[in-house]
Protein 1
Amino acid sequence: MDRVVEIFKKIYLIFFLLFFFENANSQVIQKTLSYKKYNISFVNKMTCVFGKTVNEKDIIQVGLTKKGLFFYEEPFELNKKFNSISKKKFFVKKTWFGDYELKITDRKDKNSKIIIDFKNKKAKLNNEKGQFNSERCY
Amino acid sequence: MVKLFKYTLCVLILITSSLKAETSKEFNTDPNSAFSFAPAPGSEAQKFLKTIGLKEGYNDPKNNNGSTIYVAIGEGSATANNNSQTIHDARYNAYRRALLQAKSKYVQFLGVEISTSMENIVKENTMPEPEQIVERAVKKTTGNVSEFEKIKKLINLKLDQALKKEGYNKDDPKEKKQEVIKKVLASNEFKSTTRVAAQAALAGFQTFTTFEQSNAGDKVFITVVGVWSNKLNELANAIKAKDFNNIPAGTPKKPIAEQIPNDPGVLIGTFGAKMYVNENGEREVVAFGHASPLKEGRRDLLNNACKQSEIKAKADITLFVNENVYYTSELSERDISQDLQVNGKEQYTSFQGKKFDEKIKSIGQLNDASFETVDTKVVPGNSVFAASDCISIVKWSPSGERARTGMKNQTGQKNNNTFSGNNQKMNSRQGGSGSRDF
């Protein structure tokens, strides 16, 4: 009888541990909150790298579409506030000098500004950490 | 009435100028005004385009004798220094990178698919330290040492498999194992991603001209002005289809051999495939391939370099005729907060970062085409570039194709003419360009 109890004890232990390891591992919940798709043509597109510090860099992708929209994460109209899918607010206008001035308000309500010069392949970034000229744009 | 008009005009001018002044002032008082722009790498190319009445991007057929022209500028830098023996291969690869970038702009002009998404990833790690779990659990259930060992082995086996999935390997050093165990108790990640994808079959995209900068001590930087036009497209399609009657005729020029740059300073900076119009008004495609020998002073190695440069030139013609270009980029922004357990203590960290991946891929294919080697030139090592450069000039022509009929598998011949380099410092220079009859 004791022998049977011992065997059941072992079986119980093995099942318990097997169940435990199957369920005790890290759990990941991944949710796609929102998704959008666009088909556009780029008249101009530029990728710029800013060196904030030696170790920290920022990178942006901006463009102009055939239909006259501005592109930063998503295509949107000039001179009109735009709420992006990434929960940021964008506003872009063309300056007197032919550059584009993009104002960004991020999810934490922090403001930054990027001035984009497509013609000379340059950009400058202005945010709470300081002002940065693009290291390279291509 | 006139007075009133003059007055209104004056007021308007005053308002406009004050507005402009205000804007300029606003711009100048902006902290950004501390910045200034240095000449951009592609500015030489932009200037060149201005002189010939073209602009980067789409050029209206109305201004170009009914020909639709698209111009794209790309840049690339060499990975080797000028004193390296492989400098000319590195320069050629820089050229290819620049051309590919120019092509990717054209492909993106033709149309891209953009998808943007926002994700929230929550991670919770409820796994305690593995060895402790096994010992505690087994000891509780059985007091028998041999039984304990048996069960422990069995459990450990299962545990190892489960942990491997988590990046934990029992054979790893202790520090590494601790690293995995301590990694994350909980994390919350916001991730926004922008994906750009474009794909197009290109026919007739050629290198119009190249600009090369090679400052002392700096690596070579190459700017390519690439061009696509409907005439170039027709030529490429005719080569592919072997239908030479539909190639648009051009204004007769000098024989091709006389149009090819003969100045070593220009020739060394001339890359890729270009369309030329010959003395009969026929359009031909001429390509310039470059390669350096493995060592200087060895005839056999120089010959090998010349063979390689010939292959490169042929590859350039192939890509001109029939190429598929794929562009993809992914820019993700992450905002992560984490609860970590380090040495038994809980720590909180957060960071923001971006990840950018860009891929441009090109595949070319051309079957059963006839190439003719026009010339092979060698520019010896000099004060700018340590290594010799073997430049192969290869062409495709309708007359060559016709002559080939019935003579399949016959290849062209090459000359091994050499000439001395100018042994002078090479400043920023422009390579040769083909016919401008786009």
Protein 2
Amino acid sequence: MDDDDLMARVAAGDHAALRDLFDRHAPWLAVRLRRALPAWVVEDVMQETFVAVWRGACRYRPAGRSGAWIWGIARRQAALWVRVQARQAGGVPVPPARDPGDLVVGADELERAFAVLGTAGVDHRELAKLLLVEDRPVAEVAARLGIPEGTVRSRAHRVRRLLRAALGQEEG
Amino acid sequence: MNVEVTGLTRRFRSVNALVEVDLSLGAGVFGLLGPNGAGKTTLLRTLATVLAPSAGRVRLLGRDPADPVERREIRRRLGYLPQSLGFYPGFTVFEFVEYFALLKEVPERRARADAAGAIERVGLAERATAKLRTLSGGMLRRAGLAQAIVNEPDLLLLDEPTAGLDPEQRVSFRALLRDIGRRATVVVSTHLVEDVGTACAEVGLMRDGRIVFRGTPAELAVRGEAHGVGDAPLERGYSAVLAEEVR
Amino acid sequence: MITHPDDPLHVAGCAACRAGAQPPPDVDLGRVWLEVAGRTWSRPRGPVERLASSLLGSPGLARALVTTPSLLRAYVAATAAIFVAGAVFERGTGAPLVAVLAPALAGAGIAYAYGPGADGVFELSRSMPVSGQMVLLARALAVFALNSALGLGAAMVASGASGVALGWLVPMTAVCGLALAVATVSRSAAVGVSAGLAAWCATVLASTGSTGHLDAATTEGWLVPAYVLIAIAGVVVAVRASRQLPAAHD
């Protein structure tokens, strides 16, 4: 189906058409964005982009330029992110100080990692599940496990190292 | 062990629905077979923390369901699909699954994406924004399954889940069960013997509130070799075991 | 115009280049799509739900509240209309209609708030961490509060400047407790409503017959302890019964 037809369907509220649009354009958009931005920022920007596409599809004028139109939205979303970062960092845009092990992992990955770790990981399984899979705040994890917040942080640090090693992750 | 049950007994007025049930389950798919009134639903409801035992000891996911705080912890990691689910006619499929994600205390930030994921996993993405009252029976069942798996449960309880599904849907359903059973405990209660054969690593057969057989589907089939009645080996095993109990 | 293949504007317009694009390995497009789907498939939450969510600290409980059958707009509008009609009638004729109506309307609202009769997925709700009991109490309180507010408004309209009659609040709790208990035990909202209304009508008729005043059921002081007892008993019975209900089949 032609891109303009797809955009028209999206504008008409067809969710399946949005999915098709996503499948078509997300891969190359991700490649372009990844040149300038870290992976997790690319994911956020892509999310905002396609939600914006969904909401603004009626403004698109059919001229065979849907790809350029979507790229325009993506660029604006990326610029917005950079501006917000700059404001928070006090002027100079810096890449986010985010530990690459500080991922929210899926439960499956966690299982694989702990299978590799064997008995070494047994103590920290619950903590890893609460903090990394369910993405709960440190205070809540501390309350649930009945340990001080400082202990949660130091154990989390250790767990992330173990997980990274187990999943074969590289720095950066 | 995600399920540790000893001596579980449940009475309803004068009826003994469960009698001295012992059950210990780890990860994997466990099938529960038996005639109507055997106690399958009562057992599932007990595991779902909807019913309290009259006697016996129950431990789920390493916790005690009799304690309110631990019960809440269990329920966050539980998935349950009752036999007759009901629905809110005005809700869309997405709103329905998201609502139960929230009731299961999935963190709000994740609830939307997790609901979308569960809906895609059961193959209902095309109808995600359709109102429940416009859905067929089989689709409603799949929506029910989506809410059961939305929180990636460690214990998944399904009561007659394949009712209303066509054979092709049952095939993909069994594949989904096997996938979930790699990490979680899945208990499937069904009277469709063939569902059990392909999806379940182990089978339990219930009668009059007791578990009268536990083993692999192959072992059940062996029991039917001499005297069983039925078209398929599992059916023969099923009828042979039930016949033995009536002595 | 020759554009470089790496120029995004080229790729944007060139289907052949797009088709060959491999997404970067560390970008999870599957997860991105699920986030997009979650945001485009959902309806934005209303202000009432957002307020309830931050007040209660539980988005699940907030959602359960706004989906209460007797708190939906149509039901609330109907209740309000009846209150208004009663208030206008009372203002015109002096007959204490609001006092008689309030307990009845609240009782009906309570019966339709929660329970096997009103909630289609009752069995499933009982296995939730946000438990059936929490939802039951939250909804009952919300319905009670709403009906009290509507009743208060109606009473002010009905009596104008002279003192506002509030004696109906106590019998209202009793009727609500009774309706809730019966609806839960009988597993039918309709039976709960009938029981609540029947009991209230009987009380009103009996007290009117013996004293000659229509609002005697709300003004006779000696009835108050009885009302309070019934209210408490009703709630206790409802909470306990909702925990012990067997399934309709096995």
Protein 3
Amino acid sequence: MTWAGSIFDTAGSPAERIARLAWFLIIVSAVTYLLVLAATGIAMRRARVRRTQGELADTRPETGKRLTRNVAIATTLTTLILLVYVSATALTGKAIAWPLNAQQPLTIEVTGHQWWWQFRYRDSLPSNWLTTSNELHIPVGRPVRVILLSNDVIHSFWIPELHGKQDLIPGHRNTMWIKADRPGVWKARCAEFCGHQHAKMAFDVVAESPAQFAQWYVRQLASALPPTDSSAKHGYDVFVQRTCIMCHSINGTEAGSNVGPELTHIASRPSLAAGSLPNTRVNLTRWILNPQLIKPGVRMPPNALSPADMTALLDYLETLK
Amino acid sequence: MIDRGATRHIWPTHVAVQAAVTFLTLVAVGTACTGGSEDSANAKTLPRAASRGTAGNDTLVARNGIGAGKITIPGAEAEDGQWLRPAKDYASTRFSGLDQITTANAPQLKLAWSFSTGVLRGQEAAPLVVGGTMYVVTPYPNILYALDLSKPGGPAKWKYEPQPLAAAQGVACCDVVNRGAAFADGKIFYNTLDNQTIAVDATTGKEVWRTQLGDINHGETMTMAPLVVKGKVLVGNSGGELGIRGWLTALDVKTGKVAWRAYHGGPDSLVLIGPRFKPFYETDQGKDLGVTTWPPDKWKQGGAGAWGWISYDAALNLIYYGTANPGPWNPEQRPGDNKWSSTTFARDPDTGEAVWAYQVTPHDLHDYDGINESILLDLPWKGQTRRVLVRPERDGYVYVQDRTTGEVLAADTFGVVNSTSGVNLQTGRPVVNHEKEPQMGKVVREICPASPGTKDWQPSAFSPRTGLLYIPHQNLCMDVEPVEANYIAGTPYVGMNVKMYAGPGGHRGVFDAWDPIARRKVWSVTEDFPVWSGALVTAGDVVFYGTMDGWFKALDARSGALLWKAKLGSGIIGQPVTYRAPDGKQYVAILAGVGGWPGAIVSAGIDARDSSAALGFANAMRDLPNATTKGGTLYVFGLP
Amino acid sequence: MSAMSAGRYWGRIAAVAALALGLACKREERRFNATYPSAPAYASVTLDTLQPGVPSPELTVKSPAEGNAYDIAQGKLLFAQWNCTGCHSHGGGGMGPPLMDNEWIYGSSPENIVATIVEGRPNGMPSFRNRITANQLWQLAAYVRSMAGLEAKGPSPGRNDEMQYKVDEQRTPFRTPRASSSKTLPAKSQRP
């Protein structure tokens, strides 16, 4: 799993503000640190000089006053710097939480599960509401209102290139606004410890031009077509007559369970297992056979399929583009 | 650190702090423990919704409705002493012209004979009487008995056993009931739990045809009583709690072949919506609303069966019926109006084409099915005679609609309602109370009426002599909490935790006499348990109904005074009928055998320690096992 | 601070730690990749106590999920997700019979319950053969038993986060299943 993702690789204005804040804090901290280092160094040197000159600690009252004054100045400066930090952070936080002006924002409901992501795009027509898993596409330049929900425990939604973190709290609805100012492909992740596989609860984010986004959307809305070749047909039978149908849904088929991610277009996803594995046939085989070896504790059980059944199942899943 | 040398007897600081913390903790724990104890059935103080129908007749004054003698029943035929279909006539009045039993002699009614069906589950059927034979359909295993009324004691002539699949019991939401058969063309038609419609020769008891119409692996069952109209047997499926695709199907009376099928979701071509379709309200107009008002493909698991009552107007050549709740119960999983669930349809019986439709409850939030009976009346309304249908609905309103166009003329509450605050007669849509809207992760309390509604399937009756509608119903409220529903074909698809209890007043059952023109109650009787039986009214001005603890009652149709009652072997949830036997005398017949959704605690042995059992009904019926036990007997009463 | 020797001090710490670890270890163990007994193991469990001739000794299969808090909690999760609550509610029943009482039509031992889920039963219990893995079957069976109070209190689930519709499984009163309809009474170690 690649750990690409940097808060400095900004693609939206909230991220830019955060990056600016980060630089500000880093620079001020660095300067302060260097100054403190320097002051410590000077103090150590002076102390050594005095000892080598045979003098004991300077107990003259003027020195005491001078030193006290210096400490007071340093303490005040420190407090001021801290105040500046707090204000800068608070102002930045307030600025990025402000809803973006939008006539018709794109609204996406994000539901966190242990340990995968579900996205439901809203539309004026209910039959255009799109539900996908682990892969988020957004159009460049359009404000997106993200509604954060949780199915079980507290998770946190974090796309470093676009925004800060916001929690998904069960029984509660949080809202944040994001907007991508340039196209890009990023890896986002969960930012609140949520159980065994918190570390591997990521999702792919793709920001693309509105035209490309519309094309992707239409393709994703389409139901899965019935398989045509015999191996894929057998694979479909394996899917609906075995364990898969208990947890997964494929639009256009008998499978409609929401326990696990929906798989209607699994073949077109860049990764598997909530961003943990690149989406290849080999990885899918490993994952289906025993997810516990890859993400121990994940809710999907090992599936003992015969090689023939596995091949057929993979052939079927590959038709789900 | 304690200074051991000190002689002052002051509490050491850390001990004092510990004592304070302990004390505060105990106070906090004590406060927390006194609140929120284990649930038990309780009648909470509930809001009084503005109800037009205030029960008010303590002095039992006999009075008629405004329309007494002025309301015509379309297609009414002369009384022949038979009972050919559960609703008696095509207008669904359940009114008998027999008048031997009157308010004067009803107190002398006595048991003439009884017959045990041998099946101990909820008995919801109406016995049929054709000539000198009575026909009774039992719950699963759906035995059909023919009883000889010409012999004393009504002995069985024959019985027909269709042997439906035992596994069908696993997908029947609300006990394995059956609401009865219909007679036409020399045959008895009825449905089995495992989705077969069967035609049996009424004389010989031999099977004439049977047609498999649905699949239990898709959660479908059939429990409704068919209606035979113009050579077609009309039947609908059940399973809104299992994600079915609901439909109404017409079978040819002679061969059992499917003549047409109208689905209640999906594109217009499947719903049989075509050029003749003219819904009255804008909210029901548009193309392919059965697709666009659902998330993609979710209409295929959208419920909306047709397990209730159908009426027929021969002059207009229209059948009227309603569809059931959308699936799943959790509304957040199905944004949109969810057409065509909870919808009243008017269709051409020859082709099934929809002529108008009115969605009573768009985007249903509380399992308010729309399958209740539509009683067809021609009545004086604001100076003109209007051809209407009157329907006491699940959502708590008595709807009066023009049955030629679907326009809602009136919608008035007949029970406590806070889930909506009225029906907007301009748009046709109910005004939803968003405070009572279920939300994931939250518990919403005190929603009235509860899921069984102010009235469920139990059919009302209308008397043209008194001009009153006799409505058996309930008074229940509920707490709900939605959870995510997963569609796994053949298993329940609900997504809601429910807990019901008695509504304001503490009584769970009500029997009303309602004046449809004055739009209010004329008299009202409260019962401890929900009144889940059907109603019957006669030309002798006697009204019959039964209670869930087993009392079969006769009341004066004008005043509501109790004339007679008899305690039967088990609770009553069936439909009473009356007929003239070959000996020329009038009898009243009723099946006693508690069950159905409220009676499952008895018929299926539910454990009410779990107050979410039986979709929340168990909590409201905890005391039923003390009041009655299982049964399955037919009782026939007559004058001495 | 009392005058305890360092050795005695650390000795007590070690004793408490060992006790805590020992007591809670097995109950809280999470065996993500363990292989639980599969179909053939429980398929040969006889349901009927009526056996002509001399009844054969009972063949019991040890359920690995018994007494394990994680497995029972997983069973509770699966019970709701796979719509068992749709028919059995939270133990009270509905379309299906109650599971929290002491009436067991097809047996209350873990292997009986696993067999019921896999085979289905004639009057409406669906068959989940090939649809639920062995591990999950034992987890479900352990949870079903906890609904009836047949599991020890410790590993049984505590309070629900959902609407309070019944006492949690830890506080369900223990009830002996009727001897005629269950293969064995729960072993003493499994009683509260």
Protein 4
Amino acid sequence: MIAVSALGAAAIGATLALFFVANARLKSANTASARSATVSAAAFDVRAAVVSIDVALQQVVEEYNSKNLAQWRHASRSWEAPAAALERAASASNDQQERRAHALRSEIRSYIDDYGEPVVGIAKVSPAAVRSSVAHTEGTLRLDQIVTDTDSVARNSAVIAADRSAAAGRLADQATIAGIVALVLTPVLLILLGLWLARVVADPLRQTVTAASEVAAGNFDVRLNEGRRDEFGELARVFNTMTESLAVSRSELIERADSLERSERHKSELISMVSHEVRTPLASVLGFTRLLLERDLPEEDRRRYLGIVDAEATRLAALVSDFLDARLIEEGRFSLRREPFDLRSLVREQAEVTLGHDENHELELELPDEPLQIDGDRARLAQVVGNVLSNAVKYSPEGGTITVGAAEDQGHARVWIADEGTGIPPEHRGQLFQPFYRGDAAAAGIPGTGLGLAVSRRIVEAHEGRIGFDPLDRGTCFWFDLPLEAAAANGRR
Amino acid sequence: MAARTLRPLILICDDELPLRELVKAVLGDRYRYVEAEDVEQAQEVLKESKPEAIVLDVMLPGKSGLEFLSELRAKRRNKEIPVVVVSAWQSADDQRTALSAGADAFVGKPFDPKDLASVIEALIAA
């Protein structure tokens, strides 16, 4: 942009400079011309004075008398003023002219002193002798030379003036051509400048406006070209940084909204699950109570129905306390009652409680011969095994084998429970231990609170253990590790 | 009335024993009952007998009660048997889903014994 502007300015400046120079030259040519006229006039005066000297000398030679002598004296002095004037005028032209004018003065003086005065002296004593041809010829020659030199000074002056005038004329012609060129070039340059401005300023501006509109419409993938090294390049970089951070903020907001939505969904699923779990025993309690109140029943039926009401009310109470307990554990508000015991017996017990009456599932127990002595809260760990086992049952509705095992593994006791059930889809694996997370279970109509695994993890971690799972070709294998009693005792020492 | 030697047969499909007991107690000995704990058992029952009505729970282990109902309505055999869906899931949505799956009536848990009795009577009389 600057380069093109500078080029235009330089072209116009050069044209103007040319005009100024041409004008100065013309002035100088005028001055030279005026000087040449002065020189010519002075040369004319000198020539007239020289002619007067010659005439006066001829008269003295013709007739030597006092009148002619006085004429001669006057003429031989009156040339000096015009000669000096010529020399002054010529010196203004150049050194050569000055030298010529000076030489002319010497020539005239020499003519008077070396020829005129001797001729006058001789004419006084022998007028016939000076009329001889030799002397006459010498005088004529000298005079001719003076006249020629005088003319030469005048001519030279005229030549110099003519030269200057011609040079000034040429320059003026060039200036005129340059002016015409500038006149044609300036609008062309202006048009080019306009086009260039449009490309350099308007195009990126339009691109920026388009990109900003895209961003306003929610497309954060637009990027401006950062390649330019001017203010637009900088604008593009700032714009792109802004767009990137907008995109990041938006995805964070979406992520947060999604997570809030997920947790809201979990909560509402939990509420409906709890109300379902509560309603089922409540239906028995209310139904039988109403029957007992409204109908006259035989004693045998009355007792049986009251037994069912009692059992269902107890189940209801257990459900509520389980749920509260789960919440407390999940929030970390619980303490362990540690005691040393053999993990094998706990695993065997839980497997039999859960699967003893299950005709749908096959139980396979894999327990070592040596005891797995650990130091832990037996009731809480029974809860963990129970939770994982009941999941294994719930999530393998088609039945199959449930393998329950325990073994020593590098200073730890490992317990595993593998089912041949539906397995866990990859998208749910990351959140399995999150409280209230139930994956697709609610949609599939599988009961539960989504607290079992979250609670189990809390309990295992409180025992300095780890819990996890491995997907199997068919089903899932959940496991947890607990420090063996010896290792736990060492760890505490 | 005396000519009616055989009392109507009702299939109760619910995994909760107390609930099955409750339905039987509510409806009394005017009916005969056959019980199923899940869909599989219910299908077995239908192979051997033709109940006059079905009392169906929704949340069953394995296949859900509504899946069973849809399949029943799609078959040629037994498609006319009236079905009462009894469920603890009883929002407006749940009721609509049950009815669109082919239920003739919906009773929420807990229920008033009189309501269930009158619904069954009405369905069998029709």
